Automatic annotation (TrEMBL):
Pfam families: TonB_C. Belongs to the TonB family. PROSITE patterns: TONB_CTD. The keyword Endoplasmic reticulum does not apply. Keywords: Cell inner membrane, Cell membrane, Membrane, Protein transport, Transmembrane, Transmembrane helix, Transport. It is a single-pass membrane protein. This is Energy transducer TonB. It is found in: Cell inner membrane. InterPro entries: TonB-dependent_transducer, TonB/TolA_C, TonB_C. Residues 126-217 form the TonB C-terminal domain.
Amino acid sequence: MNTMTLAPEPPARKGRPVFSLGVVAAHGLLFWAAMEFGVLERAMASAAPLMVQIVSSAPPAAPQPEPLVRPKVAPPPLASVPVPEVPVMREAPPEALRAVAAAPAPAATPAPAPVAPPAPPATRQVPPSALRYLVEPPVALPLASRRLHESGTVVLHVVVDVRGHPRSVTLRRSSGFARLDEQALGAMRQARFLPCTENGQPFECESDAPIIYELES
């Protein structure tokens, strides 16, 4: 069995305990600082995801529209418009005003005379034989005149127009009986004549036409 021989410890030096305490204190500060730094680093590492999550949960900012840039257009050149000269009204001298006031007013233009309608064609007198009937007058002795034995001749004046119609029928000479005169006037107004003509041209004519009333025997 081997026996270990321990060397004797060297004698302690003065002032060493003070150096050892200072080293230990420095090591303690370093260790404490390292521990604090580790805790702070872990705290920052654990807080970083939370900050990222909070920042990422915020809604994205809406993009700002770009300002609309309008192209600059030069205004069209203004056309030169000639300005008409306005005549300056000058006050007339008193002599001119007196001459105008003394001038006679123009005479009024007379209105044109109305145009008279054309005169109807002149009526010509013809003999009774020139009157020719197309439709004879319906002559009939009235019943009362027959009972009273009234008879006679009625002379009528007839104006015949260019169409052969009796335009006017008047009593020229009475028969002496009013019933016979009235019947003769009504019958002649229903008659129609051949128009009076000259060289093929019709004209208005007038003449006397007798109507005879006789009693039957």
